[in-house]
Write a structure and sequence with these properties.
Blueprint (H helix, E strand, L loop, with lengths): L2 E6 L17 E2 L2 E2 H12 L4 E6 L4 H13 L5 E6 L4 H10 L7 E6 L7 H12 L4 E7 L6 E3 L2 E4 L7 E3 L3 E4 H10 L11 H6 L5 E4 L10 H15 L1
Parallel strand pairs: 1-4, 1-6, 4-5, 7-12
Antiparallel strand pairs: 2-3, 6-11, 7-10, 7-11, 8-9
Helix pairs in contact: 1-2, 1-4
The structure holds cytidine-5'-monophosphate (C5P).
EC number: 4.6.1.12, 2.7.7.60
Protein name: Multifunctional fusion protein
Subunit structure: Homotrimer.
């Protein structure tokens, strides 16, 4: 297929407040990582999947091993250790991919319930020739720029979009962008930013509300409700 997927799952989950890495948190009886890997496999587009884990996490290594067994005839699945920032973790994942891929998707494990259609929309746009593609949703809240406790500006909501993953890239372009970016930069919150910085056009496709990032306790409650709705 020429498609590789990097699933980043090395975050600490501090904002969820469970005291364990977020990917290990249970949701409807399965870890968030298991849900995320099911979603990636359900999309049936990857030839190889690299899962980036908190260093030394044997529980999550076991989850990846389990997914490998379940994916007989499916993609090759491997696990690597992540870094201190999301972009460092993505880089570890990219380093483990074979050099032969045409397309790379980078996906947050925390977007555990992402429907296959989002993967398909992103990958299709890349194979049509876009070097960088991101799934987006309209922004429902008014968003303000704040300095200290004072508002300095209100951007026009109509032109704002909330950005999800998987983000899809021409493989060579993404590898170049990561290779030339500074090593550790906490303000790099997604991969498309690195492409924008190089003047590469980043195209948007429709995201999906179900691709929300499980970040807070409320998000976990929502995810559990979604799963209860779809399994009964
Ligand atoms: O922290 P943030 O919400 O941006 O995390 C998005 C995704 O990046 C999560 O799936 C998380 O596990 C991953 N991440 C990572 N390594 C880090 C920080 C975040 O793989 N050091």
């Amino acid at each position: 297929t020429g498609v590789g997927v990097v699933v980043v799952a090395a975050g600490s989950g501090q904002r969820l407040g469970h005291g364990i890495p977020k990917a290990r948190v249970l949701c409807g009886g399965l870890t968030l990582l298991e849900h995320a890997l099911r979603a990636v496999l359900a999309a049936e587009l990857a030839e190889v999947v690299v899962v980036v884990l908190p260093p030394g996490d044997e529980v999550l290594a076991g989850v990846v091993a389990g997914a490998t067994g379940a994916a007989q005839g499916g993609p090759r699945i491997l696990a690597v250790a992540g870094g201190a920032s999301r972009s460092a973790s993505v880089r570890s994942g990219l380093d483990a991919l074979p050099a032969t891929l045409r397309t790379i998707l980078v996906h947050d494990a925390a977007r555990a319930l992402t429907p296959p259609e989002v993967f398909h929309r992103v990958a299709a746009r890349v194979s049509e020739g876009a070097a960088a593609v991101i799934p987006v949703l309209p922004v429902v809240d008014t968003v303000k720029i704040v300095e200290g406790d004072v508002v300095t500006r209100t951007p026009d909501r109509a032109v704002l979009r909330a950005v999800q993953t998987p983000q899809g890239f021409d493989a060579a372009a993404l590898l170049e962008a990561h290779a030339s970016a500074p090593a550790e930069h906490p303000a790099v919150t997604d991969d498309a930013m690195l492409m924008e910085a190089r003047g590469t056009a980043v195209h948007v496709v429709d995201g999906d509300p179900l691709a929300f990032k499980v970040t807070t306790a409320l998000d976990l409650t929502v995810a559990e409700a979604v799963l209860a709705r779809t399994t009964t």
